[in-house]
């Protein structure tokens, strides 16, 4: 029950207001109700630059496992491959063995330092253009905008009663999101095995269980 203080002669008016406000705050709900955010489509030079960066980064992630690199008859021809069974790491013309892992550690340290440097000097550039969360969020927003329209149309759709058109748009949007999530998880496992062979085994249900498990976990997250 809220407590209201009655003004006394020796208490200033602003003191009463402050104390009453504090009493009301104690009875306020612990969590605020969730309010959905509907970002509006932006335009201009930096937005076009962001589209280009998004296309490049997504292209690198999805297409890199399919790049071929001739290493001879007894070596895999995948340009970038983390070969756990044979304990090798291939990166184009670079081949790293377990005893050379110190080079990987050095590269990771330099990458970490580079990331810290970029975020400290141009944190907004990293978070706004190349951060994976930002890139995939942009991709999901593109899908949402394609099926449901821009900000005003999405707000109107949220307030509209459930009918065939609303259900159709929501189902198509979420199915597309799931497909993107599956493709994202699928692209990740292709870095650890020959991509064409693993894809064939995956769709014919002959791939290792760990492949399906990894894709499932990445899809769900």
Please render the helix and strand layout as text.
Elements: H1 13-26, H2 45-63, E1 80-83, E2 88-91, E3 94-96, H3 101-130, H4 132-148, H5 151-159, H6 164-189, H7 195-203, H8 209-220
Antiparallel strand pairs: 1-2, 2-3
Report a brief summary of the structure.
The protein has 221 residues and is mainly alpha-helical.
Describe this entry's structure for a reader.
With 221 residues, this protein is mostly helical. The protein has a domain at 44-70 and 131-221. It has eight helices and three strands. It has helices spanning 13-26, 45-63, 101-130, 132-148, 151-159, 164-189, 195-203, 209-220, and strands spanning 80-83, 88-91, 94-96. A three-stranded antiparallel beta sheet has the order 1-2-3, covered by helices on one side. The longest helix has 30 residues, at 101-130. The two termini are 42 Å apart. The mean pLDDT is 82.
């Amino acid at each position: 029950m809220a407590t209201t203080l009655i003004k006394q002669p020796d208490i200033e008016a602003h003191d009463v207001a402050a104390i009453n406000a504090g009493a009301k705050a104690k009875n306020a709900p612990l969590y605020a109700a969730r309010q959905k955010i509907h970002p509006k489509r932006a335009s201009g030079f930096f937005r076009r630059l962001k589209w280009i960066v998004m296309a490049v980064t997504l292209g690198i992630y999805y297409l890199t496992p399919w790049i071929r690199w001739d290493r001879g008859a007894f070596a895999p021809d995948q340009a970038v491959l983390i070969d756990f069974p044979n304990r090798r790491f291939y990166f184009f013309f670079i081949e790293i063995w377990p005893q050379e892992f110190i080079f990987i550690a050095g590269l990771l340290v330099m990458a970490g330092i580079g990331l810290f440097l970029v975020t400290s000097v141009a944190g907004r550039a990293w978070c706004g253009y190349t951060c994976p969360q930002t890139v995939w969020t942009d991709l999901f927003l593109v899908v949402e905008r394609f099926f449901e329209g821009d900000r005003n149309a999405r707000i109107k759709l949220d307030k509209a009663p459930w009918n065939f058109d609303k259900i159709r748009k929501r189902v198509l949007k979420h199915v597309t999101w799931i497909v993107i999530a599956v493709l994202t998880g699928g692209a990740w496992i292709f870095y650890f095995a020959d991509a064409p062979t693993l894809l064939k085994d995956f769709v014919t249900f002959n791939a290792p269980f760990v492949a399906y498990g990894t894709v499932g976990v990445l899809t769900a997250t």
